[in-house]
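Bug #2210: token dump truncated for KTSC domain-containing protein?
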Amino acid sequence: MAIERKPINRGGIKSAGYDRNARILEIEFSGGRIIQHTSVGEEIALRFLASSSPMGYYQDKIEEEYPTRR
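Reproduced locally. Full output below:
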């Protein structure tokens, strides 16, 4: 299942996308690494995607809070 990512290009994050049905947030970092966080609620994902400081939001609200898979 491919998740459509949209360009972000701010704060070390190149692109990100969210699958509402699977509750997966997929993030591509500027260095090329892609990770998925599972069990992410829609509100958290949408706030991250709209954030003016996506890396800060990611580090504060997502990175340590949700399971990760590469």
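Output looks complete on our side. The first helix runs from residue 42 to 50. Marking as cannot-reproduce; reopen if the truncation happens again.
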